[in-house]
């Protein structure tokens, strides 16, 4: 095998492992009616910050965040948004003052997040990896590059 092929294979393997490690304690869920099966970390950020407001099929996005003290929110903020929780809170204060945009709705538990995502076709949220999603009207979307 040539040196270039080895480098390319190594790069692909490293990218795959980084992608899977972006949010190790989180599972992203969408409504069962949502046709998406994967989402990029970049799209997650754009949905969260309301830079993108609709899914590819035109359905409006409703991002569900977790409450400020939540360990899941800290993980999401660190691994996906690549910020600190207090930076995010200040961002949304500024957005409310200057553009009128509000932060995403915050839920305090996996059960409440699931209930909300089940209720709206365009909803997306995150729950812990230990959450039982059987018999729920949500599906897991894989976070890709």
Describe the structure in brief:
This protein is α/β, with parallel strands linked by helices. It is built from 5 helices and 6 strands; from the N terminus they run αββαβααβαββ.
Instruction: Tell me the strand order in the biggest sheet.
Output: 2-6-1-5-3-4
Give the class from helix and strand content and strand pairing: alpha/beta
User: Helical segment tally?
Assistant: 5
Distance between the termini: 27 Å
Largest sheet, in brief, is:
6 strands, mixed
Provide structural commentary.
There is one protein chain. The chain has 145 residues and is of the alpha/beta class. The protein contains five helices and six strands; from the N terminus they run H-E-E-H-E-H-H-E-H-E-E. The protein has helices at 3-20, 41-48, 71-81, 85-98, 110-119; strands at residues 26-31, 38-40, 62-66, 105-107, 123-128, 138-144. The longest helix is centred in the N-terminal third of the chain and has 18 residues, at 3-20. The protein is globular and about 40 Å long.
């Amino acid at each position: 095998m040539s040196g270039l092929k080895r480098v390319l294979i190594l790069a692909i393997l490293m990218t795959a492992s980084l992608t899977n490690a972006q949010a190790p304690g989180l599972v992203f869920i969408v409504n069962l009616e949502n046709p998406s099966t994967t989402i990029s970390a970049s799209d997650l950020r754009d949905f969260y910050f309301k830079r993108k407001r609709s899914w590819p099929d035109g359905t409006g996005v409703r991002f569900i965040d977790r409450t400020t003290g939540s360990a899941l929110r800290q993980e999401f903020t660190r691994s996906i948004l690549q910020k600190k929780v207090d930076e995010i809170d200040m961002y949304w204060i500024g957005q409310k003052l200057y553009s009128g945009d509000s932060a995403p709705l915050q839920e305090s538990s996996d059960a409440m997040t699931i209930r909300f995502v089940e209720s709206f076709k365009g909803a997306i949220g995150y729950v812990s990896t230990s959450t039982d999603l059987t018999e729920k009207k949500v599906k897991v979307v894989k976070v890709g590059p």
